[in-house]
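JOB MANIFEST
job_type = single_chain_structure
chain_count = 1
residues = 381
[input]
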Amino acid sequence: MAILGTRGVPAAHGGFETLAERLALELVERGWRVEVYCQVSKPTPPSVWRGIALIPVAVRGDGAFATIVFDLKCTLKAAFRPALPLVLGYNTAAFSILYRLTGKRSVMNMDGIEWKRDRWSKTAKAWFWLNERLGSLFSTHLIADHPEIARHLARNTSAKRITTIAYGADPVLEASTAPLADLKVRPRDYGLLIARVVPENLVLQIVRAWSEIRPGLPLVVLGKLMESDPYHRVVKAAGGPDVIFAGAIYEAERVAALRLHARFHIHGHTVGGTNPSLVEALGAGSPILAHDNPFNRWVAGDGAIYFGDETELRRGILNLVRAAPSRLDALSAASRERHADAFGWRGIFDAYEDVLRRQLPSRRAARRGREAMRRHEHGPA
């Protein structure tokens, strides 16, 4: 099988790249031959990393257009290779018509409902909406990472073509307190917000609520802030003295430590499917204060606290700031229980392997695929 749709492995940016790396390594352990397409800046020979065949695809630049070109080149290669493609994300699903034209089966993880996100322009929303439809049309089987995403997709295709597989995370049971010292905070004495700083994640509302009520302990905000972004400037201006803007932190161990030692985790995401950050917070046993919507309700379960507006957000913050240790321990236990029930990697790997096995071509079809690849690479005999 082959994994497309990410920049490649080893993972550097989280999310789909982490899924690609973890799934690829697990499938190699289970005896699969796994290929991962990797974006590089100049022609590079293929290589092997921990048993995974890395297929480099050279693309100049690093912006949205470069990503589209990269995805097109990957699809052109994958369409003529025998491996079953697993495409992570539908942002360039239009290219999957190549799989249909070459008679290949393909599996696509449909991610969240990207075209509903406020941060995109009308043109970008139209592009995402179109590619969501084309992904449903051209892919042989679809993976939804949340039951709400599956229901959304089933409006335009048969539910039999959809399998729900959530995102996973490792449990975090212990971690150094050194990352806390860097930010001058103490264990169980700060709130934590980890999010892309965009309107639909309610970062402004959370920062504003915390700054207005001044609960007596700091809020640590992890997320990239750029002075050139108007929304980012408004968020920073709303932050009072108790708000620590720590920027983007990509070191997994530092982030895990901040999650584990936080008094509670605030999750303001309003759209999307199973959010990796929320799953990882559950795995760290963080008490959860989350925006009340069907996506977060299913992920965090009944053991979290929810808010619908800024009044409820302020109330939730104060309740958790003032909560007794026994109350925090109960919320932490509920988070760990929900994580163990639904988001352990083992069950997720099993579900992916089951879907991939069911989509593998017959031996005759695989032989035709190998012959097509030879013709594509070497021309007619």
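[summary]
The longest strand covers residues 52-58.
The radius of gyration is 22 Å.
exit_status = 0
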